[in-house]
Amino acid sequence: MNEQRRQILQMLTEDKITADEAERLIDALERQQPESPQGATPRPNPRPKYLRVVVVDNSGGDGPTRVNIRVPLQLLRAGVRLTSLIPPQALTRVNAELNKSGVPIDLTQLKPQQLEELIDQLDDVTVDVDDPDTKVQVFCE
Amino acid sequence: MIPHLVTVRHRRPGGRWLRLYVPVLPVLLVLSPLLLLAVLAGLVACLATRVSPVGALRGTGQLLWALPGTRIEIEQGRTAVLVSVR
């Protein structure tokens, strides 16, 4: 009970106001303090736990193709941590093959911490591809 | 928490569903001798490729622990495959 309501009830018990007046005052008080109940603090949005990939493809003649994948973000983090175990000589060979394929990416420069940060920032990622025949959605929930 | 139940559902072109429920812990217990061999083979592979065996074991454990909640559904025409890990 807040202070103003308490004062109104106090005045009622002291016969300073009638019950009708007290009711009107409490109504007015409630109108001044809409929606938010007392003591309620706005709850922050819960952090997403899953990465969802939804693909609907209607281009095939054999009916639509639907893919619906839900992967825990924790699983992505665990997978990213596993990449730190790849031996340097294997990374060098992968780099050479990537270069040969026209993708000059140096994987040795990619640190596990950076990958984890990338996963952490995935929360806000939403990808929507709308094609007449195909629809792709990637989001976190 | 490690996965408890893996559910695999397969819809054949005829429309009939094949459901397979795999309780992970009992299956792991039954296959524990093979699992031991697999761990040993993994350790040898780690030493041969100069990968830290402890790190590999920890990474695999984390991967296993993070699996519950995974759900994969693929549907094409009258055929469908659903895999769910709980």
What does this structure look like?
The complex is a heterodimer of chains A (141) and B (86). Chain A is 41% helix and 20% strand. Chain A is built from 5 helices and 4 strands. In chain A, a hairpin with a 7-residue loop joins β1 (50-57) and β2 (65-72). The radius of gyration of chain A is 30 Å and the shape is elongated. Chain B has 86 residues and is α+β, with helices and mostly antiparallel strands. Chain B has one domain (5-85). Helices cover 43% and strands 31% of the residues of chain B. The model of chain B has no long low-confidence stretch (mean pLDDT 92). The interface between A and B is medium-sized, with 26 and 24 residues. β2 (65-72) of chain A pairs antiparallel with β3 of chain B, so a sheet runs across the interface.
Fraction of residues in helix of chain A:
40-55%
Radius of gyration of chain B: 17 Å
Total helices of chain B: the number is 3
How many structural domains of chain B?
1
Distance between the termini of chain A: 38 Å
Approximate strand percentage of chain B: 25-35%
Shape annotation of chain B: elongated
Largest interface: A-B, 26 and 24 residues
Largest sheet of chain B: 4 strands, antiparallel
Q: How many strands appear in the DSSP assignment of chain A? A: 4
Distance between the termini of chain B: 10 Å
Q: Give the overall shape of chain A.
A: elongated
Strand elements of chain B, count: 4
Count of individual helical segments of chain A? 5
Radius of gyration of chain A: 30 Å
Q: Strands of the largest sheet of chain A, in order across it? A: 2-1-4-3
How much strand of chain A?
A: 15-25%
H and E order of chain B: EEHHHEE
Average predicted confidence as pLDDT of chain A = 82
